[in-house]
């Protein structure tokens, strides 16, 4: 009960990324709302269809928003879903997964698994090429995307075409006090991050599960190719680079992009130039994965 009260207080604090976007708002052809009923749960999905693409079926990108597993919802990524739909020429499936502490690990992960399974079975009715599905997210969403690929491997099921891991939190075992936190307040009070973590993984056994802490996975061979985005001054940078190196050692194709002088939240809060470049890179990698014979020009901050 105390966790839930504290979580609701945190949710009431205005998010720095709320109501702002690092890229221009774009019109898409359609946003279709779908309620997916699975195992006595309702998962709200938004399908973004690209404006200039009328030929179907289209590939699909499953987007998982950030928020430390306990806060925010899919709407915070609305401008980015629009951008990716138009520039990667894909249907973006924006997922409103359940939050902790009401739904601790592995609840949100199992929901993500249900979403990709449902898309593979039913996506053609929504204009989706079910052979071309990618998955990704930011922060906690990046964790879920990485964990979903590990879960699919564990269950011996098909990998997505690409996993996009943007500033992912990948290690629940290392105390936040031992991570290079650049924010003075968070560095002084690592207990706050510890509370957030405990909402999602209440026990050390859960925290140590590779499906919660992907960096601990013993075998990552055969996972989907990865695009990994990190900020130079992100407290999670060491675990992000450990996971990137682990994937590379297992012969998984990895593109790792490090943005200098950027913190954990840069893709939502800036600097705007670097944030826009990161979203452009994601769009280009999705486009390249979905349309390997096409060309997509990327830009980087000068």
UniProtKB/TrEMBL annotation:
Keyword list (alphabetical) reads: Hydrolase
**Which InterPro entries does the entry mention?**
AB_hydrolase_3, AB_hydrolase_fold, GDXG_lipolytic_enzyme
Instruction: Spell out the molecular function terms from Gene Ontology.
Output: hydrolase activity
> What Gene3D superfamilies would the database entry show?
alpha/beta hydrolase
Q: Does the keyword Hydrolase apply?
A: yes
The UniProt entry's coiled-coil ranges are none
Report if keyword Hydrolase is assigned. yes
Residue ranges annotated for the Alpha/beta hydrolase fold-3 domain, each copy included:
62-267
PANTHER family, per database record: AB HYDROLASE SUPERFAMILY PROTEIN C4A8.06C (PTHR48081), ALPHA_BETA HYDROLASE FOLD-3 DOMAIN-CONTAINING PROTEIN-RELATED (PTHR48081:SF8)
**Name of the protein:** Acetyl esterase
